[in-house]
Amino acid sequence: MRNFAAECAAVVASDTLRLVFVLSASNLEHDYLGLLAVLEESDDGGPGAARLAQPPAPSVVRQRVHALLGSSTWRRRWLCVLDDLQAPEEMEAANMDWLLKEFPWADGRTIITTRAAAWTDAEAMSVAFDAVEGDDKQRQCAECGQTPLALFKGTKCGKCKVVYYCCRTCQQNAWKTHKHVCRQMAADRRSVADIVGLHVGNFAEEEACSWIKGKVLQWGGDAEGILALVRHLECFPLAVALAAACACSDETATPAMYLDALRRAGSTRAKGRGTTEEYPECFPDVVKLLLDTLLQSDQAHADDAGQALRKLALLDTKAIPLDLLGAGEKKAVLLLQAHSLVTVDNTGCAAMHAVTQLVVRDWFTPKAQRSVLVAALAAVLASKLLKFNSEKPATFFIGRRYARHAGAVAARAREWGVLPVVRPGFAGGSGGVDAGLGGRGADSTVLDNIAVMCEQAGHFFDKVSVQPREALHMHEAALDSAIARHGDHHPSVASSYNNIGNVYRAQGNYDEALIEHQKSFDIKLRVLGCQHKNVATSYNNIGNVFFAQGDYDNALL
What we know:
Layout: H1 2-10, E1 19-24, H2 28-44, H3 58-69, E2 78-85, H4 88-93, H5 97-102, E3 109-114, E4 126-128, E5 155-157, E6 164-165, H6 168-189, E7 197-199, H7 205-215, H8 223-232, H9 237-250, H10 255-268, H11 283-295, H12 302-312, E8 320-321, H13 327-338, E9 343-344, E10 349-351, H14 354-363, H15 367-385, H16 396-415, H17 433-436, H18 441-463, H19 468-486, H20 491-507, H21 510-528, H22 533-549, H23 552-556
């Protein structure tokens, strides 16, 4: 993604662009904190927020970043890539709608990468306008032709920013014809360096053809064959890029030969979850053909490539430490890189596109292997994160290196049923391991590793990186694992409730904090007895919450 941002920046005049940055939807709070440090250091030479002993609250960080990006120092001088953004309605459900409302879209250049089709809908791309340049003729509704004062409070096409509409209905009716000229109108109106705001979409056919001609030199003269291929790929940028990589690696003679091989791969592909809006139907075939080409080669460690790819697909998309893989799998990563399925940076960490990860999980990870993959990664992550200590700054790098990947593995474990939701009041009941995974030794070990991995990652998110939402997700996953493993009444379950209470207290959500600390206290009192030191700790935690509320009488009790 950083390479993509750099390529985008290369087309913008260097005298107007001072900053290029990436904000990942999966890691927004951390990325905002790092961006604030850069902006503040450049702005006044002082220490950035990320270097302070106690970073500000996430909302304060966002407000400061947005204010700086809109200041005279930075306005119109930055390029942002918002990576893997959800659909607007999904962002609202995830409490991320502040990004739509608060981000300074008009103060710089923004590119969105997304798997959500909603961003490219005509309706989603309409832009409200008040007073704009132009005479009354330019303000005519492109569909009905009226020019009333209502057009001063209407909409215009958010892609070309050229044509105006008096209402949303007219815009929707006009899209069937306007979409064929929209891109060219935008190109005629402005250059890349003039683009302000966001632009989302697939390649145009000529762009996709140009890309392939530049990458697959042996196909350069076969314009008709290349056009047929990009149409089959639906101009999906990732599919076009991987197809070019595959053609280069096996030196396919013509586009027609590659297209035939692609169709054969599709005909033999196992059944998956069906159609999806996140990638076109052809994309799994592109990935399968690349994998088949790699696995059928006689290169060393080719047999390990498939398992390495499946493990990488369970982790976070970027900065994946290769020490999470086996010895043969590490070496196979270089083969995956040669076939453009992953990238490896100069620090030895891998990255994999989120859509490629999704396809690998959907289509090329058999159900029988899912629990095995989760178990292997959870065991390694637990052993790594056990060395993290929130009271020892020298170990903080361990949390930065592995915590996000623990979160990704926990999400896959939930999705695949390896980690059941068994808390009281949730689907799945409140029984012990018999109600969860059946009590088998291997399953118990997996649950123990998930609990350790999630608890340690939760401590990092809570106490070091100050990401309360991620901390809650991790401690809740540790709680589910502990209940599935031990039942409702166990010291490990009490510990998870206590951790959740601490996160709520740090957020100022004292009512929820009291509920969680009370659950922890009740379990400890029942299992450990009233004289145990952990019971005293719960008394202290409950008292601290009352004290923070200003309820000093209950705090003393």
